[in-house]
Amino acid sequence: MTYKVYNQDCISGMREHVEDGSVDLIFTDPPYGIDGDKLDAHYNRDESNVVPGYVEVALETYDQFSQDWINQAARTLRPGGSMYIVSGYTNLHHILNALHSTELTEVNHIIAQYSFGVYTKHKWVSSHYHILFWQKPGKRTFNQRFEDSKASYHDRLSVQQLPRDYKPGQLKNKNQLNEDFIEKFILYSSNRDDVVMDPFCGGFTTPRTALRYGRNFVGFEMNKNAYDAFLPTLDKVEEKSDPIPVSPNAVELAKQEKMREGWRKDRERKKQQLDSTLFDV
User: Fold this and answer.
1) Selection from 57, 10, 41 nearest residue 200 by Cα
2) Which among 10, 247, 15, 268 has a CA at the least distance from the CA of 146?
3) Strand pairing of 105-113 and 128-135?
4) Contacts of 269 (CB under 8 A, 6+ apart)
């Protein structure tokens, strides 16, 4: 698979390097505009293994920033192409406003449950990210990962679990997402040989996951420290085949059929009870 990552801001970078309608899927986790470069002091985090130089976006410019990069991202998507944007809640409205100003349409608003490990006393404890799933009008890719409808249903719930990305002693980027989590979205919403893009590569988790499953990749990262640290990891990715859709075993099939039979009998019993009362005086 091929990849190209540019050490520049994604707004000028997409304009310069990415053609109209050339991208099949965008998965990205942009800066949140919440002084993320200073949160280690606020939360007493040990960031001795975190790559320095995180590039934050000022709150007063976040609305225009969102508009500019989302306009470019929408331009690059093919008809039917999908985009997932991971966001916190503080500046979510700016991202939604930008999305609504494009031709893209909403598919799902997904909640990723996540433990930040932050204690609050006089308000609810923040424990989730937002994942905005939008598409350009056209035929959208959405693969089936399970042959069993029950398993498929539970795998696609709009509240997902986001596990922490524990990498003790390893070099990482600030606020790095778990690659197993990213994998699900790439497998559902793209095919092998498709082009995946991440305008904010960070720790290069999206490109590694895309390349691992035979997707091509294009992306951008402004932080030179992160770019130099993580770009070499792409050459070390071992390619895998896409998982074969999971089929339930015989025991599970029998269990499900027994449940369905119980539901059918229950519906029939209620129907008979209703019919018998129609003629009661």
Assistant:
1) 10
2) 247
3) antiparallel
4) none
Q: Return the structure tokens found at 228.
A: 């130099």
Answer yes or no: are the C-beta atoms of 204 and 230 closer than 8 Å. yes
DSSP summary character for residue 91: T
- Is residue 51 within 8 Å of 97, Cβ to Cβ? no
**Encoded tokens for 171:** 């070099």
Among 27, 10, 13, which Cα is nearest to 197's?
A: 27
Tell me the backbone φ, ψ of residue 271, rounded to 5 degrees.
Answer: -65, -40
User: Edge-to-edge strand order for the sheet containing 105-113?
Assistant: 3-6, 216-220, 195-198, 23-28, 77-87, 128-135, 105-113, 159-161
Closest CA to 175 of 70, 61, 60, 55: 55
Q: What is the pLDDT of residues 248-258, one digit of tens each?
A: 666 766 776 77
| Residue 25 one-letter amino acid | L
- Helix, strand, coil share (%) of the chain residues, nearest 5: 40, 20, 40
- By the 8 A CB rule, do 211 and 186 touch? no
pLDDT over threshold 80, residue 278:
no
Collapsing DSSP to helix, strand or coil, 60 comes out as helix
Tally the C-alpha atoms within 13 A of residue 14's C-alpha that lie toward its C-beta. Answer: 22
List the beta bridge partners of residue 23. Answer: 77
Query: Helix (H, G, I), strand (E, B), or coil: what is residue 112?
Result: strand
**Is the confidence at residue 275, as pLDDT, over 90?**
no
pLDDT tens track for 205-234: 999 999 999 999 999 999 999 999 999 999
Distance CA 200, CA 220 (A): 6
